[in-house]
Design brief:
400 residues; 18 helices
Amino acid sequence: MNASARPFAGVRILDFTQVLAGPYGTYQLALLGADVIKVERRGGEDMRRTPLSREWADRGMAPSWLAINGNKKSLTLDLQNPEAKDIVRKLAAKADVVMENFRGGVMDRLGLGYKALSEINPRLIYCAISGFGQTGPYSHEAGYDGKIQALSGIMAITGHAEMGPTRAGFAVCDVLSGATAAFAVSSALFQRTHTGIGQFIDVSMLEASLAFLSTQVADYTVAGHHQHQAGNQAISRKVTANLFRAKDSWLLLAVNDEKQYRNLMTAIGCTQVFYDPRFGDWFLRKDNELALRAIIEAALAAEDAKTWEPRLNDAGAPCASIWKIEEVIEHPQIEARGAMQTVDSPYGPLRLMGSGFQMAHGGGKLDTVGPQLGAHTDAILGEIGYDAAAIAELRKRGVV
């Protein structure tokens, strides 16, 4: 699909973000048609060289960097250089959005913060992502995913009580903060259609994480409930919404209501529990959890998890076996919906994830792989009046 048909076609974003939270947010907007200019220091951001694969790191195209920088253009600038700051101001004059995720106050000290740039372009939407926001006693502290997982309460409720706190297996706070930023920018762009003015958006990773924990927060603020590490049990705290051992591996049951419970017990051949007073309702099942778990696992031991999965789901007892990343990307549901996208690169076709949603028209699409460092510098500078000789001189002086 042509990028001009997408929701943010014609929207230009100056992207000063780096690592994960910010780039993930700008990537979502780029998939939806925004013209995203990724501004990097002359050596490129560190994420280009994460030490997972030496081959890809040496190319400055590490897999985790490629995953969130498609559809963007690359411009290199030394932001300490006054001439580079002039270039930013010229670009900001015609931009719709600026996004950055430096510590609070960094862009202001460079003379490129919201106040300075909005005087040039009152319609500018400026989104700053940081660990703790631009105000408050922690505003100048660095924000890292693990640090926010620990501070936000996520780690306090993740894991098994006997083993202690556990961080999520991916950078959950980075990603949800990026998604929050993309949503905020989208909201501001819509608001600007009827106000005609831009604004400053202050995204705090800590607050974004707490917003995603809203039900756990309300459990305490409304009912005084103290959360604890509940292992793999669902937040419903139903005995049959937990992880169970099958013949060869694990099966996650998501059985949360009475009908599903009866479907489960019927499907695994344990209808005797319907007449057992220990399991008459959810409170009694909780009191006798170990006995009920033993009955369920004895039945599940007859088959492997991948065999039980379709059988139980068809019977109306929701469940899933434990899928690895390399397995789920080949899942027939993922394949049927075209969730994985293939894009050409100088190194051959690459398969990457696009948007997490689909639209009837104008949805997200990955058109181009993440750019080589500085690949679009000349073209971008040419758009704002620099000729080839001037660009060569800027490069010679280390401005770009």
